[in-house]
Amino acid sequence: MTSSFTLDQPTKLEIAHVLFTDIVGYSKLPLDHQKEVLGTLQAVVSSAPEFLRAQASQQMIRLPTGDGMAIVFFEDAEAAARCAIEVSRALKSHPEISLRMGLHSGPVYRVADINANQNVAGGGINIAQRVMDCGDAGHILASQSVADVLGHLSRWKECLHDLGETDVKHGVRLHLYNVYTEEVGNAHLPEKLQTAQRTLVAIRSKARRKKLALGMVAIGVVAALAGWLFLPRHAHALNEKDTIVLTDFANSTGDAVFDDTLKQALAVDLDQSPFLNILSDEKVRAALQQMTRSPNERLTDETAREVCQRAGSKAFISGSIVSLGNQYVIGLKATNCATGDSLAREQVRAADKDKVLDSLGTAATKFRGKLGESLSSVQKFDVPLEQATTSSLEALKAFSIGRKQNSAAAIPYYERAIELDPNFAEAYARLGLMYHNIGQPVQASEYITKAFELREHSSEREKLHIASSYYLFVTGEREKAIQTYQLWAQSYPRDWLPYLNIGNAYGDIGQFEKAVDTTRESLKLYPDNVTAYENLGGFYLALNRFPETKDVADQALAHKLDEEVLHTNLYGLAFVQGDSDGMAQQVAWFEGKVEVENEILGLQSATEAYFGHLGKAREVTRRAVASAASAKNKEAAALWSADGAVRETLLGNYGTAREQAGAALNLAPGSRDVESEAALALAIAGDAARAQALADELNKRFPLNTVTQSFWLPAIRGQLEIDRKAASAAVEQLQAAAPYELGLSTQLNYSCIYPAYIRGQAYLAGGQGASAAAEFQKFLDHRGLVQNCPTGALAHLGLARAYVLERDNAKARAAYQDFLTLWKDADPNIPVLIAAKSEYAKLQ
What we know:
Helix content is 58%, strand content 11%. Strand 12 (327-336) and strand 13 form a beta hairpin. Helix 2 packs across helix 3 (79-90), helix 9 (261-271) packs across helix 12 (356-370) and helix 23 runs parallel beside helix 25 (564-576).
């Protein structure tokens, strides 16, 4: 027997938008109550604005279902959803009615029932009922077809919450969405879907208790169940302002290589996303300390939830790994830390141990979409995990341990990581930065350069980190560093680090207003970052904005943020304001702090020299050098020695200066900053050959370094020209420094403005008094930048000599008096003081 298809069938198929409703527990009500609640529901629905509009345009059919009704809308795809929202809102006034609703758009055809009334039949209305059956009281559930339409409209996006897939009657598989807002709907996971979760967890738990010989069978069972049981998913679980906390992985495999490693790998993968914002390790440690817990405590789900709540984060993400035979099952779950509701889940299986990282990367990519990140963003920022980090679990484990250590202690772990994987770019970068932090710039440059060469083996965010570190610490190209940080900030606008480091780079080249703006932007993103407060205070000092310098320090201390640079800033502020008690308070803060006391000793030495107390200055310099050396910071020790060498030359003690410069070079061979200061000291001291050799070496090694080429080398070359009695050539050499000479040329938040000082000396040597006076005036105009550098005191003497050239004896006498007043208690045998007194006597 055969059948045939003809085109003259009377049936007309239409796409309808169905709202199916059901009163929960209706059949258990007494008959009189059933009639009452059904009448109330009918009155609520029939008075809904959307119902009335559709009824007036005859684009709707209402069907009684016994314990509810189905409303079939035609033409307007939003009508059913709007009506559901209106009914849910109206039922707030009728708590006696527990209604659940289902939405579906699909094919129907119109029929007449036995009473010749209009009716509909077809998959569109059947599926709407299946969708509704999955809900509990208050739920408005929607099918994928409804979400596909409404998801294109911004007004609906925040209402649609993806629940993933589940099976219903007759083997039909539905992808469900929960429609709710703060005002309407039911935000809780439907009981049917919770039951599916519990079943899956129970089966997994049972499977783990099986003997190893049954492992492969368990995998098959779990895989089969995972194919149909509900796995929750929320496309709009987070928004771009939310922060998330990562827990430590629950490692049930017994293999320690997964400890810390998988959390680090997941962090790297999720960090690629400009949408997700992981709570930083610093903030996690701060929250743990507030909880009176160890800052290094492992984050279980319970602990992570409390950290999440204290930090004001939205969710925490927990991970797990279990072994089933030779295979591994990796799970990810996001949980709302306020409610405990599940926001998203993902589960993958790795065929063997070597595939775990690859499988985790696949899971993380899918998970990002479920947390709300757009498909285009996921595709753009999705370097495979093995490429973004390393394919070696052991290397990643060493790397993750290193991240928990301080600079010196971290080094062997990063070295182990690159030994295990010679292409591990980020490990090279962090190793280089650790060497930079402990004052070993040669090793720092070597490893950061290697990271730069391997940067394609990293995520997009890490590429930017590596490139910016390379431009800042290796080539020294401040403008390129700024451009790279700006690109980083554009790609990841919620990252605080690029804004902080843009501020640093602007400070290096003397653009302090821009430095303030970008550092403040960093603080908005990370209000508890003490480094930002320290830098900002230094920039305000450089701008002579003294009240704001104090305010910034007070704000940091009020936040219980307290590190040494806050106190060196306050020491500089107290010096500028002539507050000796304030200076003493800051000195007292450093007592017993072995790692950083060299910083305050170096500043005290400068203060003594500023007032001509050269004997005290030398003694405190020796203590600063010894303190830095005992803290294993060779570069800091060398810098204090080099600083003392320049000071000795400025005061006219050339033999002592040459000795100290040599000592500094021996302490930290290859240090750019040390060689720069030592070369300047040797040039002023008349050792032209050694100064020229160092300058040539600096020029060769750092041809692109902004500070070297535009601050130190012009100053050194200018001084060498003065030594050759070529004043005009000296001024010409110093022109290159003009755009950048007011920058912070060292790691300290002050500057001696050496190019301006030497330019002033060149003008004096050339008999150009007015030009010389303009240079020395810069030191008086920028008191917050110069602070206690001896050039600030010597600028008064330079001004006096400039006014003598201009034959303005009154101003000259006043300037000499200013200098001699500062040096009223100075050591009497200092050459520059002897000369100043002699010159002043001739004016009387």
